[in-house]
Every structure is written in C-alpha cells, then in structure tokens.
Write a structure and sequence with these properties.
Elements lengths: L4 E6 L8 E6 L8 E10 L1 H7 L16 E8 L16 E4 L2 E2 L6 H4 L11 E2 L17 E4 L5 E3 L6 H21 L7 E4 L3 H12 L5 E5 L2 H10 L3 E4 L4 H10 L6 E6 L4 H10 E9 L13 H6 L4 E4 L5 H14 L9 E5 L4 H9 L5 E4 L2
Parallel strand pairs: 10-11, 10-13, 11-12, 13-14, 14-15, 16-17
Antiparallel strand pairs: 1-2, 3-4, 3-8, 3-17, 4-5, 5-9, 6-7
The protein binds zinc ion (2 copies).
One zinc ion (ZN) binds next to loops.
Length: about 375
C-alpha cells in the first residue's frame, strides 16, 4: 500500500464480475479523515445492488457501507460525540449515511431524517469517480461531516462487524416496535437483521422470542442469539400461525418484526400479531414485489399497528456499538461471520451471501 494510492474492489455494473482497481487517495480537506479499513461487511443489500434491484446506484461503485477502520490521517482536529478528540490510530466505525441536510421538510417538519432526500450513503450512492467512498478498499475517505464513532475499549472489531448493518437496523426496528418488558415477539427471517432483532428482543426482556425462517442451521443459531422457540419454513404458514398462538395463550404475539425479505412474510406477519399488536416491516429494503392481504381481517378488525422502518440514524449506530460492547461476550455476533474474503475475492463473497452459504461475510482488505 503506497501512501497515495489504494486498492479497491469495484462493482462495474449489475451482473458484471467485480475487479480490483488502484485508486488515488483523497486530498484531505479540513474536517476530513482517512481510515485504513480493517473490515467491511458484505450485506444482503450488496447482493441486491449487484442484481440491479436497487435504483439510483451510480455504477461503477466501490461497495461496502458498514465498515471498521483505523484512523490513518486527520486533516484537522475532529471530536467525537462524547466530546473527546479523535486521534490517529483510533479504531472507529461511522454512520454510512451522511449529508442529511437539516433544512428540508423531512429533516425539519416531519423529523424523519432517514428520509432526507439529500442524504448520501457510502458504498451505495457514490460512484468510483467520487473517490474512496466504499468500504471494500484498503482506505476510506471520511468526508467532512461524516459521523465517526470510536469502538469502546474491549469491543473487538470482529464482534461489531459481525453484527454490523443488521445490528444497527435491528436497533431501529426494535425501537419502531415499541418493545416492552414481557412482550412476546416473533421475528420472521433469520438472516443478519433477524438474528440481531432476536438478540435485542431477548435482551429487552421479551418472552417468548419466536424465530421463524430457514435453513435449520440458522434457526439453531437463532437459539444461541436468544430465541426461545423456532419454527422452520417447512411448517405450512397456517400451522406456523397456530403454533405461535399456542405459545402466546391463543392470542398471537405483541410484536412481529419482519426481516425476511419476501413479500409473503409481510402477510404472515399480520397474521401472527395479536389484536392491537404491532408489526414492523424492515425486510423489504429492495422491491420484492407485492402480496395480497385482507385489510378487513388482517389489519382493520385486528386494530393492528404496521410500521415501516427505513435506514438508520446516528442514534441507532451509537446504541448498536454500546450494546455490542456490553454484550458481545455472550451474544455470538462474531460467530455470525461465516467467511472472510480479500478484495480479490469480493465476488466470491457476494456469491456466498447470495447462496446463503454464510449468514455474514466480511471483506478484510
Ligand atoms: Zn434533509
Ligand atoms: Zn447493509
């Protein structure tokens, strides 16, 4: 790695094989920093991007939105949210979303900053020509205004990246769910978001915590994350719903978190909630098509609350890091990483995630 150029895995376009390119380092302006990337995760979203299922991606791109790195250079003094200055050598992560404007209707009036139209996302809305703004690279340019967060002493970077994007999303989903002590919870989907939602529900005092998904190995892992009951997709949907009612005194669960990524799961989620319960939909980040529901039977008569959950803000990242620091000893986020790949093998990493050979893959540049 020379001082002024860095290797990066480039996704040229939908369906095209990845390639490694050497790119110039950024000219650091005041407020900027440069990270040496330790880990960047391979998220389901990266698979969807490579399949062309996410609109507005400025190919070619350097993928990688959630990453951990070491500060190599700081152009000017920068201070973290805890008031202490960042220093060269600190291990940090950062909110992949930046440029939230705090001037628009969404930011100021409806207070939905994750819907700000001016927000940009590392690894997704930047092209290669914009610079080193994706994590699948030796170095990452922290543009002025990007919110970095130091990993606390004792939190090993692999534990944090093992949770990664899924953990941050799950923090937001559980917040939207209004989870309370003693709530019963069903989580649809046992990928990275579902696994972390299970862990957070268990930590939050929920019982039972019912994991629904496949394959069996992931359901077994869900037990390690805190699920008290698991239901495989080999059980027909009606029977699954009956089992959930059995586990909840005949009523259905207080909270359903859909993290399955299939439209049919949303309809099932409506069926699993108790009357007056709450459903959070966070598994439809890309367009998985439609599904038929019966609004009378599944929503209106049940007096149901249905919440979408889009993106995350700094508060979710901050809490995710705090939770990982406190609980990584007993919640096996680190073990969710099924394989580690070099930049040259980034294409294989995508394939492994797409084929569900691993729950989580990480790039180690
Ligand atoms: Zn805005
Ligand atoms: Zn992601």
């Amino acid at each position: 790695m020379t001082a002024d150029s860095f290797r990066a895995a480039v996704m040229p376009g939908p369906g095209e094989p990845l390639r490694v390119e050497r790119l110039p380092g950024p000219r650091l302006e005041s407020g900027a920093a440069l990270l040496r990337v330790l880990y960047s995760e391979v998220c389901g979203t990266d698979v969807h991007i490579h399949r062309g299922r996410l609109s507005g991606v400025p190919f070619p791109i350097i993928p990688g939105h959630v990453s951990v790195g070491t500060i190599m250079a700081l152009a000017s003094p920068l201070t973290g949210v805890d008031g202490t200055p960042f220093e060269v050598g600190d291990t940090v992560t950062f909110l992949d979303v930046h440029g939230t404007c705090h001037r628009c209707y969404e930011c100021l009036v409806t207070k939905q900053t994750t819907r700000c139209p001016h927000r940009r996302v590392y690894g997704i809305t930047y092209g290669v020509s914009d610079g080193l703004l994706g994590g699948w690279a030796e170095a990452l340019w922290m543009r002025p205004g990007v919110h970095m967060l130091r990993l606390p002493e004792g939190l090993d970077p692999e534990s944090f990246i093992g949770g990664g994007c899924g953990l941050v999303t799950a923090v937001h989903a559980v917040e939207r769910a209004g989870l309370r002590l003693g709530h019963s919870v069903a989580v649809l989907g046992v990928g990275p978001v579902g696994q972390s939602a299970i862990a957070l529900a268990a930590l939050g005092g929920a019982h039972p915590v019912i994991a629904i998904g496949d394959p069996p190995s992931r359901l077994e892992f869900a037990r390690r994350m805190g699920a008290t009951a698991v239901l495989g997709l080999d059980i027909p949907p009606d029977e699954r719903a009956a089992r959930v009612r059995e586990l909840t005194g005949g009523r259905g669960v207080d909270v359903v978190i859909e993290a399955a990524g299939q439209a049919a799961a949303v309809s099932q989620a409506l069926d699993l909630a108790r009357d007056g319960g709450r459903v959070v939909v966070c598994g439809q980040y890309t367009d998985h098509g439609g599904v038929e529901i019966n609004p009378h039977r599944q929503v209106n008569r049940k007096h149901l609350e249905v919440h979408g959950c889009w993106g995350s803000d700094f508060s979710h990242l901050h809490r995710a890091v705090s939770i990982a620091a406190r609980h990584a000893g007993r919640i096996p986020w680190r073990d969710m990483i099924g394989a580690r790949y070099s930049l040259d093998d980034a294409g294989r990493a995508l394939e492994a995630v797409e084929r569900r050979e691993v729950t989580k893959a990480v790039i180690v540049p």
